[in-house]
Amino acid sequence: MIRIVAALAVVGLAVAAGPVQAETKAKAAPAKAMAAKAATPAYKAPRGPDGKHPDLNGVWQVMNTANWDIEPHAARAALQLRPGPFVPVPAKAVVALGAVGAVPAGLGIVEGGEIPYKPEAKVQRDKNRANYLDLDKGDPEVKCYLPGVPRANYMALPFQIFQSEKSMIIAYEYAGAVRNVLFTDPGPAPVDSWMGQSVAKWDGDTLAVSVSGMVDRSWLDRAGNFHSDQMTVVERWTPTGPGVIRYEATITDPETFTKPWKMSFNLYKHVGDDARLNQFKCVEFVEELMYGDLRKEPLK
């Protein structure tokens, strides 16, 4: 009898301890998962031509709709709308484009979702959006002007990084734009330009690029988001996996924004036969738009 009572007591202790042990294991599981994650080595990209830093060579491209609007946005009928009988409808100049002229939805690339505009600057952004098709006030992309930084990196067309032991060039398919990335700081840019002056340094496996000296005529997207000539951009290019670069850009422009803000997205490497740039020098494509009215007999 004594043996039976003792056995039952042991079973009771085990049953009572069961929930406690289960709870303890449940609490320990996240800690173990975090420890395992911390123990997993960070991705180490193949080394570049200098044998020390990541190899960024190749053709890269985004898989987002940020060039339409860098803020989160729903799909809409057109970039420029006009009042309709019930809801806004596409502007007259884009009606014939139908679905081709529509704006695809996007999650945005602005961290926090919204750009911190000054009140007067946000009014200007809205005016830009309302006058998207205006030849003088509209998007510079329509006229094939160079896109500037950071916009050049998230347009629909790819770009190629050429990296050697001591130098780097970024060539963009759009309009044949080019950036010479300097690793020795020459001082302030002698003159403002569309693509600005890029000065880089390595921060571990991250390429940090400071861009300054940009004109104020470029937009950040097709939705009218803009900047002044006081804008500076600090880019961070970090390989995070095979064929993937995490791109981050911190925008500072005290004339336009209340504080610095950041955008981030992934870039993906082309592989195979399409890992090359095609030619899209679009200046000749807009001659009729910009100068057609100067013909002796303008086209109807």
Descriptive account of the structure:
There is one protein chain. A hairpin with an 8-residue loop joins strand 10 and strand 11 (261-269). Residues 4-17 have low confidence and may be disordered. The strands form two sheets. Strands 1-4-5-6-7-8-9-10-11 form a nine-stranded mixed β-barrel. Strands 2-3 form a two-stranded antiparallel sheet. The chain is globular, with a radius of gyration of 27 Å. With 300 residues, the protein is α+β, with helices and mostly antiparallel strands. The protein folds into three domains: 1-40; 58-71 and 108-292, no CATH class; 73-106, no CATH class. The protein has helices at 2-39, 119-130, 287-291; strands spanning 58-61, 81-82, 89-90, 159-163, 168-172, 178-182, 197-203, 206-212, 232-241, 244-252, 261-269. The longest helix has 38 residues, at 2-39.
- Indicate the percent of residues in helices: 10-25%
What number of structural domains do the residues give? 3
What's the helix count? 3
The shape, in one word, is: globular
The percent range for strand residues is 15-25%
Q: How many strands, which pairing sense, and closed or not: the largest β-sheet?
A: 9 strands, mixed, barrel
Order of helices and strands: HEEEHEEEEEEEEH
Structural class: alpha+beta
Rounded to the nearest angstrom, the radius of gyration is 27 Å
Distance between the termini: 111 Å
Defining key terms:
300 residues; alpha+beta; 3 domains; two-stranded antiparallel sheet; 11 strands; 22% strand; globular
